[in-house]
Amino acid sequence: MPPGRGTGTVANAPGDDVTPFSWHCPEPGVLEVHDGYSGVERVRYAIAPATPAHSTDPAPAVAFEPPLFLARECARISMASD
């Protein structure tokens, strides 16, 4: 996976908590994430298809172990418009 940047958002009653982060892979199957607060998390990852709850079609996904930002899997899907 190429290095990159993103944001993690957690919605709650007082408002959204948005955390900027950057990532890179120091070795195959290992993801290192640096958050905007000087924290660093290192997790193992695998790319495999997963079926989202609202769909019957699998989509490419990244599975994390241990979970990253409270997520075990992350997938980018697009919704077709009529």
**Topology as H/E string?**
EEEEEE
**N/C terminus separation:** 33 Å
Our estimate of the beta-strand percent is: over 45%
Low-confidence stretches: none
Largest sheet: 6 strands, antiparallel
The computed structural class is: mainly beta
- Summed over residues and divided by their number, the pLDDT gives a mean of 84
Radius of gyration: 14 Å
Number of structural domains: 1
Task: Tally the beta strands.
Answer: 6
Write the layout of secondary structure elements.
Elements: E1 4-12, E2 15-27, E3 30-35, E4 40-50, E5 59-68, E6 71-75
Antiparallel strand pairs: 1-2, 2-3, 3-4, 4-5, 5-6
How would you sum up this structure, described in words?
The protein is flat. The protein starts with a strand and ends in a 7-residue tail after the last strand. It contains no helices and six strands. It has strands spanning 4-12, 15-27, 30-35, 40-50, 59-68, 71-75. Strand 5 and strand 6 (71-75) form a beta hairpin. A six-stranded antiparallel β-sheet has the order 1-2-3-4-5-6, with no helix packed on it. It is mostly beta strands and 82 residues long. It has one domain. Residues 1-21 are annotated as: Disordered.
Question: What would you say about this model in short?
Answer:
Helices cover 0% and strands 66% of the residues.
Main features:
6-stranded antiparallel β-sheet, mainly beta, 82 residues, single chain, 66% strand, 6 strands
